[in-house]
Amino acid sequence: MDTYTPKTLQRLLKGLAGIQSWGPDDIQVTGIAYHSGQVEPGQIFVALRGCQTDGHLFIDQAIQQGAQVIVSEQDRPAYPGVINIKVPDTRLALAHLAAAFYDYPSQDLSIVGITGTNGKTTTSYILEAMMQAAGLKVGVIGTVNCRFDNQVRPAPVTTPESLDLQRLLREMQGRQITQVILEVSSHALDLKRTHHCRFAAAIFTNLSQDHLDYHGDLDRYFEAKSRLFTELLNNECRPAPLAVINRDDPRGAALQRRTRVPTLTYGLNGHSDLCPESYHLSSQGLRACLATPYGRLEINSTLVGRHNLYNIMAASGTALGLGLSPEAVVDGLRQLAGVEGRLERLAAPGKPLVFIDYAHTPDALEKVLTALRALNFNRLITVFGCGGDRDRSKRPRMGQIAAQASDLVIVTNDNPRTEDPLAIINQIEAGLHGGGHARLDPEEALDASSGYLVIPDRRQAIFQAIELGQPGDAVLVAGKGHETYQIFGTHRVHFDDREVARQALRGQCHS
Questions:
Q1: Which residues of the chain register pLDDT less than 70?
Q2: Within this chain, do residues 418 and 459 fall inside the same structural domain, yes or no?
Q3: SS3 of 478, please?
Q4: 109 shares a domain with 97
Q5: 276 shares a domain with 387
Q6: How much is the pLDDT for 24?
């Protein structure tokens, strides 16, 4: 059956609870849309309430575009030739309708969902490499991109809207993909984007401060994350889905108690199902001997830092739990050269070693800096900023962390969006002072053993950091990682930390 084969409205509505419908349900529906500008004749328009606007305001526009069915949370006046359907929750309705329209593709796929504040992307790359080493056809949907069958597509958000997600899954199914790795954000869980997906396994990496501008506090943030395990892992499925949980994280222990499916825990302590008997970290990567319920694993990886040992354990436990051989796990990890924008190493003769990382939360920044500090570089220079229109409370905390773990910090712009860039920097400076760093000018920074500079222009900041660094030093450029843009106001401009750092390492002009 073609992906876009029309379905009867009756078939799509089957099983959708709490609906009130005005009009016949035996009509043929040609598609579904949640953006009024994308509606085509014969389609269903589902009105979603968002953070910025409300789809209910665009129902008339959707009708003008040719929508023959309107799904909303409101009583609507009759409109000739248009069927009105009222539901308690249009997001749940969209997830239901999308899965039905695309013939429930997740039923024929083995989907692994990964949630947590940090580590989702790296874990997805590791697990993908292991599955590929086992000869499986894999699709990945995540923060960096969507990739399958030799295609790479941009990813506007970590987890697509339910309609887009079901369409992607159906396309993957049609291309004989059997395994899907899906990064699942807290926003996606709160907005029900992954409802009506059947998961074979779910991974919880960790939980720390992020997205509090959306969720309000850590407890509500955790509640959103936990839904992947408490609502979407169905213990009636056969085989039963697997929950893979970081037991070293306090919220992981709480999540384990709530989970009603088979659970595999991982951590550095011996009480976890999967833990290292020994490990060694260096600037070239890590080695470890892992004890698992499936036997001992001797692993080697180019990934740097103890936090990546956690990511490796999460992926290894999931792979083994899903039936992959220990050989595929070890081989896949060995073949993985690195992860885009995650402690990505850039080097040049006579220059400091540069690391590009996506760390944009207090916990992620602390873990990355701890990993680099443990490698005994002569000096550690950190370049970072904080995003605008996002959680403001983390800015001074990140400043303090950077000051405590770095010899020199250069504060710069991230994505200021609609906020005043200097106001964001001022909030970071409060934490830098709290961490014991004083503000310097560039000349003072040449000989200073500690302190910070303010250079709002990110390109100039990266060049300055690399100019200040010497062989044996490390420069961390944090916050953007794989991203290739900056956002000023509501406009995106091209900017790639890796591109700029390579230019600086080659000694190109930074003007």
A1: 1-4, 209-216, 509-511
A2: yes
A3: strand
A4: no
A5: no
A6: 87
CA 472 vs. chain centroid, Å, equals 32
Q: Which residues, 6+ apart, have CB-to-CB distance to 458 below 8 Å?
A: 383, 385, 412, 413, 414, 486, 495, 497, 500
For the chain, what's the residue count? 511
Q: Phi and psi for 339 in degrees, rounded to 5?
A: -125, 130
Range(s) of the domain holding residue 473: 344-505
Residue with tokens 């698992």: 292
Nearest to 309 by CA among 277, 344, 347: 277
Indicate if 156 and 50 belong to the same structural domain.
no
Give the Cα separation of 463 and 381 in Å (integer).
12
pTM over 0.85: yes
The token pair at 186 is 């807290």
Say what angle helices 421-434 and 394-405 make with each other, to 10 degrees. Answer: 50
Q: Which of 101, 133, 155 is the last residue of a domain?
A: 101
**Residue 405 · residue 440 · CB < 8 Å:** no
Residue 146, judged by CB atoms within 10 A of its CB (0-12, 13-18, 19+), counts as buried
pLDDT in tens, 277-326: 999 999 899 999 999 999 999 999 999 999 999 999 999 999 999 999 99
Rounded to whole angstroms, the Cα distance separating 502 from 511 reads 15
Find tokens 């302190």 and name the residue: 451
- 75 with 111, same domain? no
pLDDT of residue 5: 85
Q: N- to C-terminal Cα distance for the chain?
A: 56
